[in-house]
Structures are given as C-alpha cells and as structure tokens.
Design the sequence.
C-alpha cells in the first residue's frame, strides 16, 4: 500500500504543479475564455477544482443562488455549480492563491494518511483513499485539458498523469459497450487511439458480459481516433456525430453500430 500511496501522491502533485504552471502563463482574455464545459470559463474550471478540494477538507460551502441550472443533470452537478458561482467574484490572484492553499493543505493530510485502503468519500461515491486520490488526479487532468483546448495550448497528453487518466477511461469502455450499447454476444470493438499517447483498447462480449480483451486479434468493429478525441467523447465534451462527420472518428465495420458506440462513449456524471 505504501508503494501505491507514493505513486498516487506523485501523480497528484504532478498534475497540481502542471495546472499551477499553466495558470501562471494566462492573460486576462485566457481566463475569460469559454471551455467545452457548458457555461464555464477557464477561470470557472479552476474554481471547480478548488471547490472539490475545499469540500474534501470539510470546509463550509457558501449558500448561493444559481442563475442558470438548465445544463445541470444531477446533485453533483449542482454542487459543482455552487463551487463555481460562489467564486465568480474572486480575482484571478485570489483564485490562484486559494488553489495553492487547498492543494497544500490536502497534500499534508494525504501524506499523513497511513492507509490508502481505508474508507473515504469522493465525488463519485464511497471508496478508499486510493480511489479518492485516483479520481482527483483524473478530474484535475481532464480540466487541465479543457483549459488547454480553450486557449490553444496543448500539452500533458503524455506521461504518467495522462497514462493514469487514459487508463481510467479505458476501464469504462466495457460498461459502454456492454451496458450502454447492449452489444450482442460474441461481438467486439477495438478503440485505436493515436497521438501523444497511442494505445489500443479491445473489448468483447463473453457470456453476456463485456470485458477488456488486450489480445483481441480481430474485432467486429474498430473506432480510430486521436487521444484528444477519445477523452473528449468519453467525457462528454464533443458532439459524437459531428466528430464522425468531421473525420475525427473513423469507423471500420458497421457504420451505424460504430456511430452508436461513439454516441454512448460519454460516461461522465
């Protein structure tokens, strides 16, 4: 468990530092640029990340009125929006300082945690401390990518944090293929991902259950896309039909079935 703790803490520190370095180079126009997250600017993405850590620290959450809730789908979405709206009046300098403060305080707590297997809450539900940190690494990285796309500064799509995050997405593809798509027995799909981080994901249905199939020799259908498209479809950032139409997703095999898979890739709450 100590090895797991050290590895996760290194990833968490790495993505926090990457975000801090990215924010240091933003100008006022960058901060106010809209992202792929509905109604959120770059500044709002940082406010969201602060808010999650703020809640995990057990701090009081302000009571604010939400002017627009049409894009919210669940309770977690409402919580996220409160965290964002309550910080809209903060200056950029205040926001950066709060980000540094909450991340530093959280790191102290995590480093003092002896057992990463003990129970802990996270935005996706009850799990272990390891689960909680794994989710936080992923969430920070996803929103770093939201910011980078918005301001046209790509980066951090390869390396340990990216690998960790892409693996979390890959692990959900059996759920997408088996439950959401309801793929038939014996069918299979290969997601062929290229770019800064290139990899393949094989999934097949065996005894009515979709499972990862690393050694999949021949898939029923193949979806080819770059790493950015993969994360944007899985996280609900881009419209699947437009991605197919624009050639960002190439389907080999049954095109209608492939399009259905692409449409169902979004699993984010």
Sequence:
């Amino acid at each position: 468990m100590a090895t797991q703790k050290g590895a996760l803490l290194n990833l968490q520190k790495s993505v926090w530092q990457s975000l801090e370095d990215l924010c240091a180079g933003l100008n006022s126009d960058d901060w106010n640029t809209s992202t792929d997250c509905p109604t959120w600017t770059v500044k709002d993405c940082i406010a969201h990340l602060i808010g999650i850590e703020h809640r995990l620290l057990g701090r009081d959450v302000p009571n604010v009125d939400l002017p627009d809730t049409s894009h919210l789908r669940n309770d977690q979405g409402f919580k996220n929006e409160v965290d964002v709206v309550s910080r809209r009046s903060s200056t950029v300098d205040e926001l950066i300082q709060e980000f540094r403060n909450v991340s530093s305080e959280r790191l102290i707590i995590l480093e003092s945690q002896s057992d990463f297997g003990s129970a802990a809450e996270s935005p996706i539900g009850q799990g272990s401390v390891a689960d909680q940190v794994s989710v936080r690494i992923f969430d920070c990285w996803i929103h770093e990518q939201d910011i980078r796309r918005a301001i046209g500064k790509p980066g951090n799509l390869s390396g340990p944090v990216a690998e960790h995050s892409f693996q979390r997405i890959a692990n959900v593809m059996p759920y997408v293929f088996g439950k959401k798509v309801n793929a038939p027995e014996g069918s299979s799909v290969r997601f062929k991902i290229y770019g800064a981080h290139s990899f393949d994901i094989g999934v097949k249905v065996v005894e009515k259950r979709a499972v990862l199939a690393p050694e999949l020799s021949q898939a029923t259908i193949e979806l080819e896309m770059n790493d950015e498209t993969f994360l944007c479809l899985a996280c609900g950032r881009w419209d699947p039909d437009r991605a197919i139409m624009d050639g960002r997703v190439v389907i080999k095999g049954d095109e209608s079935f492939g399009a259905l898979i692409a449409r169902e890739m979004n699993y984010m709450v």
The chain has two domains: 2-154, 167-263. The two ends are 29 Å apart (CA to CA). The mean pLDDT is 93. Residues 202 and 213 are 5 Å apart (CA to CA).
